[in-house]
Amino acid sequence: MNQLFTEDIAELPSRFRANLINSITGYKSCNLIGSTSEEGLTNLAIFSSVIHIGSSPPLLGFILRPLTVRRDTFANIKALKFFTVNQVSGEMYQKAHQTSAKYEMEVSEFHETGITMEYLDDFIAPYVAESTIKMGCRYVNHYTLEENDCLLVVAAIERLYFPDGIQDPDGFIRLDKADTVTAMGMDGYALPAFLDRLTYARPGSEPRTIIHGA
Amino acid sequence: MNQLFTEDIAELPSRFRANLINSITGYKSCNLIGSTSEEGLTNLAIFSSVIHIGSSPPLLGFILRPLTVRRDTFANIKALKFFTVNQVSGEMYQKAHQTSAKYEMEVSEFHETGITMEYLDDFIAPYVAESTIKMGCRYVNHYTLEENDCLLVVAAIERLYFPDGIQDPDGFIRLDKADTVTAMGMDGYALPAFLDRLTYARPGSEPRTIIHGA
Is the pLDDT of residue A12 over 60? Predict the structure, then answer.
């Protein structure tokens, strides 16, 4: 058994600590955020911090590192308000990972990584053609976390695209049927195998498996 | 291909929309939060919203639904400041799910679900004995999201426990070796299979597989 207290964690080499702390809280979502600058330059960046914020209204969030260096995605979102969130699949995670390279602002990660740009229904921001699940989002707000100057960006989900055959009758999306990957730490990828869905828990009864979301 | 715009999403039945929007942003972490009330009552609750906030200092966060009903976990954390985060494994996800039942405040979810309470190194909050990865955390701050009155709670990771054999030499935790599950939507569970770790991305080169995190 490994046991680390505050002082032990503080004394770890910085990269080692980042690998440890980034991976230990659990699995993460894995998405590509597509955006466009005011000058019309497209940008694509991988994020493992996209989270569910609420269903009514439909909101998602993501954590952005401090604005001490150039953050093209945030600058674009602040300027044009709209962006896309596109899920990374097992077919394309290497290309998706490559979007994290520090390209010059004038360079489009679509071009450099060979990921296919796609425009849908007059939405201003580019989608990823290879992604099976895509969302068109509108910037709503952001919160600066004073503990480390990271930002929580909150956005409205305004458009959804997903293929037939991955949704249960009760609305639930079977991410495993979409070949969606999950992110581990800063550089790890895994492909989940479906285990179960369980009925709404109530005191005094045991949860049962939900059959086909019906 | 399914396509839903803002008005379509708004018109969905509430439970269907919740299933859809909760699941579509991607895979989520799956943890049990252990806490104690001022009166000494223990509480255990499953959360799929624990996220990485920062490594230096080590911070995690989680989203809490609006305080319009009783939220024992938040009340306990505000009162005593300390709580535990314990990963859910494939062996125990049914019991973990059952902690989401609305038990009376006086009832301990440990007792009701058969999950084993454990105290470690004089920490005030209870850990989950069955969890292979456990964290002792201290409340730091919270942010109220004005869009839907949810809270983002920010906490310092002060203690870490994990078994031998799941950490790469560079610090990365192999969650798959810990049998950690990932959460899908409000009631789904999946077990990820490791795909890859990729080298730090740089313009002009292709990411390669990291061998054993060395």
Answer: yes
Average pLDDT of chain B to the nearest whole number: 95
Q: Does B97 touch chain A (CB under 8 A)?
A: yes
Among chain B residues, CA nearest to A139: B147
**How near does any CA of chain B get to the CA of A183, in Å?**
8
Residue with tokens 């494994």: B89
A49's enclosing H/E stretch is: none
Dist CA B69 CA B147 (whole Å)? 18
Which among A176, A173, A151 is positioned nearest to A64, based on CA atoms? A151
- Residues in chain B closer than 8 A to A178 (CB atoms): none
Q: What are A78-132's pLDDT values in tens digits?
A: 999 999 999 999 999 999 999 999 999 889 999 999 999 999 999 999 999 999 9
Whether the pLDDT of residue B1 is over 80: the answer is: yes
Long-range contacts formed by A113-118: CB under 8 A, 24+ apart = A113/A44, A115/A32, A115/A44, A117/A34, A117/A42, A117/A44
Torsion of CA A117, B25, A97, A13, to 10 degrees: 150
Quote the minimal CA–CA distance from A36 to chain B in Å: 20
> Parallel, antiparallel, or unpaired: how do β-strands B151-162 and B58-64 relate?
antiparallel
A68 interfacial to chain B (CB closer than 8 Å): no
* Sign of the dihedral through C-alpha A202, B23, B68, B62: positive
CA distance A207 to A114: 45
Q: Is residue B15 less than 8 Å (CB to CB) from chain A?
A: yes
Instruction: Kindly list the strands in the beta sheet with A182-184, ordered across the sheet, starting from the edge strand earlier in the chain.
Output: A182-184, A188-197, B188-197, B182-184
Q: Is A200 on the interface with B (CB under 8 A)?
A: yes
| DSSP category for residue B166 | S
